Amino acid sequence: MATKTLEARFEHLSVNDENDPAQTGKTLSKSKGSLSTAVSITGLGAGSQPSATRNHLLKIALQNTNEARTNAQQPSSDESSGQASATLYEQPSTKKLHLGMFEIGKALGKGKFGRVYLAKERASGFICALKVLHKSELQQGGVQKQVRREIEIQSNLRHPNVLRLFGHFHDSKRIFLILEFAGKGELYKHLRKEHRFPEWKAAQYIAQMAAALKYLHKKHVIHRDIKPENILMGIHGEIKISDFGWSVHAPNNRRQTMCGTLDYLPPEMLVTGTQENFYSEKVDLWSLGVLTYEFLVGEAPFEDTPVMTQRRIRRGEMTIPSFISPEARDLIKKLLVLDPEKRIPLEEVQQHPWIIKHCMKAEKVHQRSSNPK
Predict the structure, then answer these.
(1) φ and ψ at 207, to 5 degrees?
(2) Which positions are linked by Glycyl lysine isopeptide (Lys-Gly) (interchain with G-Cter in SUMO2) (predicted)?
């Protein structure tokens, strides 16, 4: 019932925002200029916004997440690591973010604990996505720690293939995450529509994934839930890793918790109840291998009943179809290795013949189209 009420309030933009003193007892009505119109004007992507508007929202977001750094500016490069400490329920008194600052549009997706909406920051016209989570549902599901971790990790990441988290705020019942808007939605939907990707496209996606994972691992972040549903696409077709709910910051690179999605779980995460059940960031390499296979074949390599899937993963039992090229087959086999220490490292993935072949070709095509004779 609470969910339906929330959806109704969002759809009609008739909400009381308790974080905005000026809005107490008032309703926020939809302006004549609809969000869909605003989106078409701005080109549908954060990348198309002037840097001034990005800085405007980002400045407020950083003020909200770190009171001690009210003059924080947007990092100058993708590799910089903002140190904003994201607290879940406490907000500084300076420049609080609140719902009244946003014009809410259509629902972009639905998760277990809430929804994601297209949104526009009113003052700057900045297009973003607003993830709405219900505190009561988070508490019932026992996932408050997951959400806190997601905020703390994602707010510190800056990479073109990692979805940005600009900031967060809350009211008495909900938590709002301000996320980068990925204009082409879930990669999973594109894969289901095409059934499987041609090798040139899959190679370019895997190259971007390798770059993003290399960045995450450098930051001592293990994603632990790499799968098509957790990868979004920007307006220009670039991919962006999202959903850091299962991610963990592990400076010693060793963890014991079992999590993630069964089809993508590596063998070392299926060994339970033993002291040997430690794993490192190399779990993401296994998942990258499963992802490569699914991109090219249209289904996961170990897909079966839950019991059989686990058995096949532990034994590394899979069949690579004959239509897969020798180069792609080689990369899959080098990623899906039972011994984590023997999996091909990300640096070598980026330099693998299959990646080089398709990404160099795409680069040459791009150069020709950019420099016509």
Answers:
(1) -60, -40
(2) 227
pLDDT score, position 267: 86
Q: Is 281 annotated as a binding residue?
A: no
Instruction: Return the ∠ at Cα 344 (arms to 338 and 347), rounded to 5°.
Output: 155
Q: What is the pLDDT, as a whole number, of residue 290? A: 96
- The Cα 185–Cα 205 span in angstroms is 15
Please state, as a whole number, how many other Cβ atoms lie within 10 Å of the Cβ of residue 361: 13
Neighbouring C-beta atoms of residue 148, cutoff 10 Å = 16
Q: Would you say 59 is a known binding-site residue? A: no
The full set of domains in the chain, from first to last, is 50-179 (3.30.200.20), 185-370 (1.10.510.10)
∠ CA 151-159-85, rounded to 5°: 30
Residues 348, 2: Cα–Cα separation, whole Å? 50
pTM for this one? 0.71
As a three-state string, the secondary structure of 241-262 is ECCCCCCEECCCCCECCCCCCH
Q: Is 128 helix (H, G, I), strand (E, B) or coil?
A: strand
Whether 78 is catalytic is: no
Residue 137 annotated as lining a ligand binding site: no
The burial class, CB within 10 Å (0-12 / 13-18 / 19+), for 94 is: exposed
The SS3 of residue 209 is helix
Q: DSSP code of 162?
A: B
Sign (positive/negative) of CA torsion 106, 11, 163, 279? negative
The reported pLDDT for the residue numbered 144 is: 87
Q: Six-digit token pair at 30?
A: 């939809």
* Residue 180 labeled ligand binder: yes
* Token code pair at residue 38: 């605003």
d(CA 238, CA 105): 23
Give strand ranges (E) for 122-199: 126-134, 165-170, 174-179, 185-186
Question: CB-based contacts of 16: which residues, under 8 Å, 6+ apart?
Answer: 23, 24, 25, 26, 27
Sign of CA dihedral 309, 311, 316, 318: negative
| Consecutive 10-residue averages of pLDDT for the chain (373 residues) | 42 41 40 33 34 54 41 36 38 67 92 87 94 91 86 91 94 93 93 96 97 94 87 94 67 43 82 60 94 96 90 93 97 96 96 93 49 51
